[in-house]
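@channel sequence for tomorrow's demo:
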Amino acid sequence: MILRKAELKDKKEIIDIANLLYLDIPGFVWNSEEFVKKQIEKGEYFLIENDGQTMGIMSLRQRKNGMHIETLVIKKEFQSKGYGTQFIEFSKKFAREKKNDTLYAYSFTEYNIADFYLKKGFKLMDYVGSYKGRQYNCFEIKI
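structure tokens (generated this afternoon):
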């Protein structure tokens, strides 16, 4: 298993996996070529691979108030095998290295993955976000 920073050659694979998150929302950008390319160029995308096969993707973004997991997707056939946990542990370490004491994560409520973040030690924030009328949960963990 390899967890590595994405390269431009990974763009199509990332978009294919990001399509698993697609919601019919005007302006849904997380699977757009332009958006993914920009995040790869900024060093914000990471992959988990095994034997050359990508099992999941994650984007991490530095913002003023801390490090943010904005996308985390594990392909269905690889879920519940610890890959999401490996991304979370990597994110905590990465955030600490960048001098952050808080890691944030976001997920549209329709994805029904709040339990995943809660089991990993995140707390559900009181703030519920809204993007083009779709609600998303906000999580945080002190690291």
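heads up for whoever presents: The chain is about 25% helix and 40% strand.
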